[in-house]
């Protein structure tokens, strides 16, 4: 029997990690894990439970409390916090504005990295895991590591399409760049490309082209085993 294939997909915000990872996993019959959703979920719990997210010690002390469960089916990934569906609330502007501060706290990262490694170990045929530190820290022995990039302009224009004009493209771009700087600048496992990751610049590629490129790279890795 073939050993499970583990794919790490990292990169800055809005480069297409979620859309690409879900589609690749669905095409190849693999599980899928959105680790950003887990950082958002713990942030939502902190905000909902009156924890001051700028107080590192308070966040660290509370980090073991929420029960976070991720469903890894790529066509319908789920996330619950203390048994409650969190898929909507974790996408609010309030959570987006606070998530970088919470995810910089080492105790939060230790807790979630444990969940992420457990999910990868439990995936029967393999998994596509997306985030910021998957190739560098969470799954350093992944079969394939991809680092997605795209220009700030392309990423802002993609996100603005989703927000349907609720925010100007420039404001969206400023927020993306600010979050990337915080995620890249933190001490504990910052957003970074692993030395052995393949960089794919998606600025001028359609989503289908990116998906095809990564499926091909996985098939090449499988054939070489
Ligand atoms: N290659 C592409 N061309 C055009 N649009 C794309 C491409 N890839 C993704 N998109 C679109 O860009 C938006 C952001 O994509 P997605 O949510 O997958 O990015 P992400 O890297 O996971 O972002 P985040 O880190 O903020 O969660 C989505 O609307 C998606 O449909
Ligand atoms: N492996 C990860 C995944 C995510 N984060 C943090 C940093 C992001 O700004 C935030 C939200 O992620 P998104 O939903 O935009 O993918 O979560 C991290 O630190 N490490």
Automatic annotation (TrEMBL):
<feature type="domain" description="Cytidylate kinase">
    <location>
        <begin position="7"/>
        <end position="219"/>
    </location>
</feature>
<keyword id="KW-0963">Cytoplasm</keyword>
<dbReference type="InterPro" id="IPR003136">
    <property type="entry name" value="Cytidylate_kin"/>
</dbReference>
<keyword id="KW-0418">Kinase</keyword>
<feature type="binding site">
    <location>
        <begin position="11"/>
        <end position="19"/>
    </location>
    <ligand>
        <name>ATP</name>
    </ligand>
</feature>
<comment type="similarity">
    <text>Belongs to the cytidylate kinase family. Type 1 subfamily.</text>
</comment>
<dbReference type="InterPro" id="IPR011994">
    <property type="entry name" value="Cytidylate_kinase_dom"/>
</dbReference>
<keyword id="KW-0067">ATP-binding</keyword>
<dbReference type="Pfam" id="PF02224">
    <property type="entry name" value="Cytidylate_kin"/>
</dbReference>
<dbReference type="InterPro" id="IPR027417">
    <property type="entry name" value="P-loop_NTPase"/>
</dbReference>
<dbReference type="GO" id="GO:0016301">
    <property type="term" value="F:kinase activity"/>
</dbReference>
<keyword id="KW-0547">Nucleotide-binding</keyword>
<protein>
    <recommendedName>
        <fullName>Cytidylate kinase</fullName>
        <ecNumber>2.7.4.25</ecNumber>
    </recommendedName>
</protein>
<keyword id="KW-0808">Transferase</keyword>
